[in-house]
Amino acid sequence: DIQMTQSPSSLSASLGDRVTITCRASQAIDTYLNWYQQKPGKAPTLLIYDASSLQSGVPSRFSGRGSGTDFTLTVSSLQPEDFATYYCQQGHSAPLTFGPGTRVDLK
Amino acid sequence: EVQLVQSGGGLVQPGGSLRLSCVGSGFTFSGHNMNWVRRTPGRGLEWISYISGGSSTIYYADSVKGRFTISRDNAKNSLYLQMNSLRGEDTAVYYCARGRSGRNYCPDSWGQGTLVTVSS
Lengths: 107, 120
What we know:
heterodimer, A: 50% strand, globular, B: 120 residues, mainly beta, seven-stranded mixed β-sheet, four-stranded antiparallel β-sheet
């Protein structure tokens, strides 16, 4: 199975900050990497697929990069609605696996 | 608009059974693979099962293999998860999720979630 790790596990940031979350796969997954946002009591929502493609309706302040084993999600200017938990997920092969999540809260 | 509406769930005793359902609308249901994913406070998001559009390919996580069964009825735009021999560690919010078209196994639209509590 492909293991996914994320760093940091949590971070505190201010409105307008630039935030970057890192995700690493235990083996190369090409660009089959997806990012999700989840808020308390809500279902996850897809932000980025194929490592860098923005899902329809997602603000352009979200961006993704990477290939192989190392990936990043960046929020260019943090907005109030962006305080949430973010997960990466590898879509290379079953079993699909998620990272442990990165919680972003208000400093 | 893509919608996935879930039903089922609730409180069940250890060793018991439960069936979750998920009805899709706003898209060609048979043209998409489907997934079940669960969230627990301790383990975050955990993928548990996948079924292709025509049901020819099915995968399970090791944690549920032999106990859970995924199925679908494309005539009813419905996805199911039959859960047997339930354990305390199966307590979670369960989500159905549509798979995005393409090579990437990417759940792109999610149901609202349903809570399953396994406790005596």
